[in-house]
Amino acid sequence: MKLTYTQPTKERLDKFLVASLEIARNKAQSLIKNNLVTVNGNATNPHHFLKSGDIVEYKQSDIKEATKVKKFVADKSIKLPIIKETQDWITLNKPAGMIVHPTEQMEEGSLAAALIAAYPTIKKVGDSPLRPGIVHRLDKQVSGVMIVAKNQKMFEWLKWMFSHRKVNKEYTALVHGELTQDSGIIDLRISRSTTKKRMAAHPQGSELGKEALTSYTVLKRFRNFTLVSVTIHTGRTHQIRAHFNALNHPIVGDKLYKQRFIKEHLDLDRLFLHSTKLEFTDKAGVTHTYHAPLPKELERLLTTLTPRA
Could you tell me which residues come within 8 angstroms of residue 155 by beta carbon, excluding any fewer than 6 positions away? Predict the structure, then answer.
């Protein structure tokens, strides 16, 4: 199959394929990277800019699966816990137990399903139909502040802000054990572990994985536990969980990163990890800061612990 680019202005190849073939951008990029799409007979990259007269060629058989964009149903029954809404974005307080967006398994009850029910036009915002307006995520059992773009321009701005580490993200966490330092920096690279669904933090000096930087400050010490404020300076999958696990201070309630030496288990059916603060600057240069208070179940748990003098 051949497509001729006829627009007078230049456009990125991956964006052109998204619009022309009605596929998600990540799938368009995968096609290009696997040399299943050529421009004027040559392999290229997703960021290649097309000019008028360029011939984009692909085999229909190669992209049959990629063009099957999965769709999910809007769910009006899910309440959106909105903190603030503007014409360009929504900030909300995601509860623990809610998945942000469906995966290839098409799980129900997602934040994404609630978003498209409340804001139908948001379906067309973002890089993938499965992630409408969503530029970042929280793990299913993590609660707290999130931001969602309501239009493509805001999506691209937020995406740039997150990728350039210009969004301030702070969390509150309860970890097993008593941290000896009042504050610290965890600078350990992270990659996917051989253990299913886990991430691994590599020893200092290792060149494996991707850079990951986390800083923390102790808020309060308890017998066998420490409450900390955490700031992530990179956005790796399970970053906080993997980093504190590497220090032998895993997050309370984390069944995936549990360790055998942990003897005292608390009655908690979620992670004691909460996104407390999100701060960013909009395109006009105005800084916006949003907070989400610690959920009641986490506050109650703290009252059952024995404080250190």
Answer: 125, 126, 133, 135, 149
139 as an active site residue: the answer is: yes
Domains of the chain, earliest start first: 2-58 (3.10.290.10), 82-163 (3.30.2350.10), 168-303 (3.30.2350.10)
pLDDT by 10s per residue, the chain, length 309 = 888 888 877 888 988 887 777 677 777 888 888 888 999 999 898 889 999 999 999 877 666 655 555 667 888 898 899 999 999 999 999 999 999 987 655 567 789 999 999 999 999 898 877 889 999 999 999 999 999 999 999 999 999 999 899 999 999 999 999 999 999 999 999 988 876 678 889 998 888 888 999 999 999 999 999 999 999 999 898 999 999 999 999 999 998 987 877 776 788 889 999 999 999 999 999 999 999 999 999 999 999 999 987
Catalytic residue among 139, 254, 267, 269: 139
pTM for the model stands at 0.77
How would you classify the pairing of strands 273-281 and 143-149?
Answer: parallel
